[in-house]
Design brief:
The chain is an alpha/beta fold. About 60% of the residues lie in helices and about 5% in strands. The N and C termini lie far apart (about 75 Å).
């Protein structure tokens, strides 16, 4: 926080120079660190150097010595006056020493009191005029009071110049733009210092608050100017009329001059001689070209507000973006007079933090008594109507739609291009996603330039390094309103077909395709949302949603994968019938996702439906049938039906062996699945051979670190652990965990499963302390990736309880066992797992001498009769 220019000399340099003096040292006591930082920031923004005890005295240093040095360095001492400060002998020593030094001849040092709470200065301080921050919440008012106190001035309202005309009234709800106001001030200061023309263009999309920012600046800094005038500049005629009005205000005789252009230029020349300088605002200027012969002399401060994005050196640029989320929520609540902070956050996000939309929404909610969430549920309908009142000449849709229409006049392709973009996610749109059928490359570039020039889109560089586009969500909403329903379906079909064309097929096992999938996924989800509730015949939607769902399943994002796969099934069913290969593929994947989530009843129903199609629909698709039967066998095993799982496994083995050569790039998963089926069938030697072959083939064809190799590593580890080969098993588990972590990150379910298996191995060897540590780590990952109540998470908790029991940590064991039992009891699952958790609960209760509760658990879950009390 020390803003002085002192430098420390390095070892071997000349003797260190004395520390440079600073303007202010801020002293405080108690919980006033945030206020100290606020005061310091205000002073530094005003160009002063500052020391603050909280930020400039390092931990571990000699506090008394550092305070002594700070008091010597500072010119003035600012005390944040509170009851705590007054009561502390240490702070009083600081102040009295400073006052004594300040009284020495030739010293010009001031003691400044800023009162922070309601405690009144008394004693020696009773006669000091203090700055008062107690109860003051407005940031600008606090800033004024801090500066007035620091500079030794009386607190007075800013002087307004005699000529202050046409400036809109100050918005009492103005918020969230302090940084932009400071930047505007800095740009003017830099221009004056360098001798450049003092012109600043505030540019950004419609509704972002350009005029509001200029209005607030004019009111806040009016006292710094010799005059202030606001000129509407939406057309050349309007600008000339405004400047002619300014000329008449300067000298009445100009009213007789018939040539408005001549009068306007005379007015501009006249204000160039003002001291202090004149502030002129051109509001809503179309393009820099409109400045042509109406730019004021360099001494005049000119603010231009415009949607035009490139000012090419004709003015310094201040690009205004949407509000920060916190400020947007605050604006909504202030405008609506509501205390619903959560609802405001959700609505602010839905409105893309656009100030004009927030203001409209707040006004609507206040006038109609509508809650924020209710407004959000019908947001597109609300955008086409402005709240009643003279301050709202147009709706959001009309405001943004006008900009769209103006861009379309300049370039014919702009309108269909924006129609295509309207149904994608608003951010990170790859430029190459726009089909060449919509616009040739040169036309596309020109249309994008036309849209960008009026701030309807922004250019961006995507994480993949390629060119991208961002479109504000309300621009998209306005475009959808302009299109209407008939054209909307045409655009939606074009977007869906293009995404289906470019979304990587079979990306589940191809890590090289994952960055592209990650980039395209938000756009797939946006298309799904726009198609929801619409009856359509877009066949590509099924394949697109299936591909995206499978990719998400691979990454453990089951909750997002499930609705995509359900929609894929519905689209194929509508177009091809329920019993079709097109419907069977996404239905099989949906069953797997339901299984992953522990939704066993629904998963089994879906599996059985697809299994029933093997002979009639799936035909010779050996690969699909083998994977389907493998997954179904896993479900039967997980729900405790070992014999049925064995029979399905035997049937699946035949399909697995019929898939042909097992040494190609796709062989790893086929071999792994075949190994699982051999385990189900009780043929362990053949299972081990399959797992080892899967690992070898995977390393040879995919590389040693491919994430698919983690599966056979884990499965082989399980097989070896069950036969007591712990050292080999643990090596495989660690390798599997490292491989999965490298591909997916530490919090992926495959990492959690590998750590759980490693913990089981430690437990079986009676290394209980190590197993407890590993179980905790695994549970933390599994609960985040799969959910607190997922059967796999519950099983890990029950296994943890067993290790804790062995260590006589019965209270902890009971807690884990109870959580496991509650999870297994919430949804149909393996009866064996439910009973295992109940048994662990009963054992822990018995160890804690809570026999009656243990008997109740046994009677309820283990079907044993409670013992009769003697």
């Amino acid at each position: 926080m020390d803003s002085s220019a002192a430098q420390e000399t390095g070892e071997g340099s000349a003797a260190a120079a004395p520390p440079a003096p600073v303007d202010f040292f801020i002293s405080r006591r108690g919980r006033q660190a945030a206020v100290a930082q606020e005061v310091a920031q205000v002073l530094m923004d005003a160009g002063y150097s500052v020391l603050v005890q909280d930020f400039d005295i390092p931990h571990g240093s000699n506090f008394v010595a550092k305070m002594h040095e700070a008091l010597k360095r500072c010119r003035h001492l600012i005390v944040l006056w509170t009851q705590d400060y007054d009561a502390s002998p240490h702070t009083m020593t600081e102040v009295t020493n400073f006052v004594a030094d300040a009284a020495r001849p030739g010293r010009e040092r001031r003691l400044i009191l800023l009162r922070v709470d309601e405690h009144e200065p008394d004693g020696l301080f009773a006669g000091i005029v203090f700055g008062d921050l107690a109860g003051v919440t407005d940031p600008e008012e606090r800033r004024r009071r801090i500066l007035a106190a620091a500079e030794g001035r009386a607190l007075a309202a800013p002087r307004r110049p005699k000529l202050f005309q046409n400036v809109p009234p100050r918005d009492l709800n103005f918020t969230g733009r302090d940084a932009d106001l400071a930047e505007l001030r800095r740009l003017f200061a830099d221009a004056e210092q360098s001798g450049a023309a003092t012109r600043i263009a505030i540019h950004g999309m419609g509704g972002v608050g350009k005029s509001s920012l200029a209005t607030e600046y004019a009111h806040r800094h009016a006292g710094d100017y010799g005059g202030v005038s606001w000129a509407g500049a939406e057309s050349r005629a309007a600008l000339l009329a405004s400047l002619a009005g300014l000329a008449v205000s300067l000298e009445a005789k100009f009213a007789l001059e018939p040539d408005q252009g001549q009068v306007a230029r005379l007015a501009l020349a006249r204000i160039g001689s003002f001291a202090p300088p004149f502030l002129l605002i051109y509001d809503n200027l179309d393009t820099p070209e409109a400045l042509r012969d109406l730019a004021p002399p360099s001494g005049v401060h000119l603010i231009v507000t415009s949607r035009w994005a490139d000012w090419g050196g004709r003015a310094a640029e201040l690009r205004l973006t949407t509000l920060a989320p916190k400020a947007a929520s605050e604006l909504l609540r202030k405008r609506a007079g509501s205390s619903d902070a959560d609802g405001a956050e959700r609505l602010a996000e839905a409105l893309g933090f656009l100030p004009l939309a927030l203001d409209h929404a707040g006004a609507y909610c206040k006038l109609t008594g509508t809650r924020f969430d209710a407004y959000r549920s019908k947001i597109d309908a609300r955008l086409v109507r402005a709240p009643k009142g003279v301050s709202y000449p147009a709706s959001i849709a009309a405001t943004l739609g006008l900009a769209v229409e103006n861009a379309a006049k300049d370039h014919a392709v702009a309108l269909p291009l924006l129609g295509f973009l309207a149904y994608l996610a608003p951010d990170n749109i790859p430029v190459d996603l726009i089909p060449l059928g919509l616009a040739e490359e040169d036309d596309r570039a020109e249309a994008l330039m036309a849209l960008s020039s009026v701030s309807l889109i922004d250019h961006a560089t995507l994480e993949t390094g390629e060119a991208g586009i961002a479109v504000h969500r309300l621009v998209q909403a306005a475009m959808r309103t302009l299109l209407g329903e008939a054209k909307a379906m045409s655009s939606l079909e074009a977007v869906t077909l293009r995404l289906a064309e470019v979304f990587p097929p079979n990306a589940e096992h191809d890590p090289q395709a994952w960055p592209r999938c990650r980039l395209l996924l938000p756009h797939v989800l946006a298309v799904r949302e726009h198609l929801a509730g619409r009856q359509h015949n877009i066949a590509a939607a099924s394949s697109l949603f299936n591909s995206a769902g499978v990719y998400l399943r691979r990454h453990g994002v089951f909750a997002t994968a499930e609705p995509l796969l359900r929609d894929a099934v519905l689209v194929s069913e509508r177009l091809h019938g329920r019993r079709s290969l097109e419907a069977a593929i996404p239905l099989s994947n949906l069953a797997a996702v339901l299984h992953d989530q522990g939704t066993y009843v629904q998963a089994e129903s879906a599996y059985r439906e697809v299994v029933d199609m093997i002979d009639t629909v799936l035909g010779t698709n050996q690969s699909l049938v083998a994977e389907l039967l493998h997954n179904f066998a896993n479900l039967l095993r997980d729900t405790g039906r070992q014999e049925e799982a064995r029979k399905i496994a035997e049937k699946a083995i035949a399909y697995g062996l019929a898939q042909g050569e097992l040494d190609d790039a796709g062989a790893l998963m086929r071999l792994n699945n075949l190994g699982n089926l051999y385990v189900h069938a009780g043929r362990k030697a053949q299972a081990e051979e399959c797992y080892r072959n899967a690992i070898e083939v995977g390393r040879k064809t995919l590389g040693p670190h491919h994430p698919d190799i983690a599966r056979p590593l884990n499965n082989l580890g399980n097989l070896l652990r069950q036969t007591g080969r712990y050292t080999e098993a643990e090596e495989l588990y660690r390798l599997a965990a490292a491989t999965a972590q490298e591909a997916f990150g530490h919090e992926h379910q495959h990492v959690g499963r590998s750590l759980h298996n490693l913990a089981l191995s430690a437990q079986m060897q009676r290394h209980y302390e190590m197993s407890v540590q590993l179980f905790h780590e695994a549970i933390d990952i599994l609960s985040k990736s799969l959910g607190e109540d997922h059967p796999t998470t519950a099983r890990a908790r029950r296994n943890l309880a067993n290790s804790l029991m062995r260590m006589s940590r019965y209270d902890e064991a009971l807690r884990q066992a109870e959580l496991a039992l509650a999870s297994h009891a919430k949804a149909p699952t393996s009866e064996r797992w439910l009973k295992d958790a109940a048994r662990s609960c009963a054992q822990a209760l018995t160890a804690l001498h809570r026999q009656a509760e243990a008997e109740e658990i046994r009677a309820r879950f283990l079907l044993t009769k409670p013992k009769t009390a003697e």
